Amino acid sequence: MLHTKTAWLRVAAPVAVLALALTACGGGKDSAGTKDDKKRNAADAPKTEKDPADGGELKVGQSATGKFKEDSGKITYEVVAQKIHVGTEAEAKKLVSNPKDAKGLVAATAWVKYTNKGGGVVKDMPEVANESEIYADGRRGGLLIGAAEDGPGCEDTIEIENWKVGQSHTICQTYMIPKSAKSVEVHWAGEGQSNAPFIWKFDNAG
Description:
Blueprint: E1 2-4, E2 17-19, H1 21-25, H2 33-44, E3 56-58, E4 64-70, E5 73-86, H3 89-93, E6 105-118, E7 122-124, E8 133-136, E9 139-140, E10 142-145, E11 161-163, E12 168-178, E13 183-188, E14 198-203
Parallel strand pairs: 1-5, 3-14
Antiparallel strand pairs: 2-10, 4-5, 5-6, 6-12, 7-11, 8-9, 8-13, 10-12, 13-14
């Protein structure tokens, strides 16, 4: 489910850093452009019934399983994008140091639940959520660093320690996307998926 015009973002970090906004929302390429193109091409390819471990589009609330290499070792995670909140342009301008950076943009935050399914204990500061990205109308948004940890139900990775098998944590990511976007997607890719991410699509009702 996707919620719009939420007020909680106004109390998030006041000096959040907007990263990749120009390349992600504009049309240029950054150093990861080639990899991102491969992800998009794989996601756009005709879909057939296949094992969820192969990547591809999933239903909202449907979980997927993939491996990710943490400092503690290679962990198998069950991943599910639970919901997205989309704020207003006025709220977005309060989240960055220069309001001009947020012109025409809104902040979209994704709640993603990760469950350690095997491979060991993640000692501290898990990085699995770094692979979660938000796309709007098929284009990656601009990562807003430091804006998601204060959201209700969001956990700060700095405070996650000794993550044992069977335990779950919900980690949020916030991206700036065009306010005119019609659809919003959460992408996550583990290892060994031929660059094809798991994709959860949400309609933007705002």
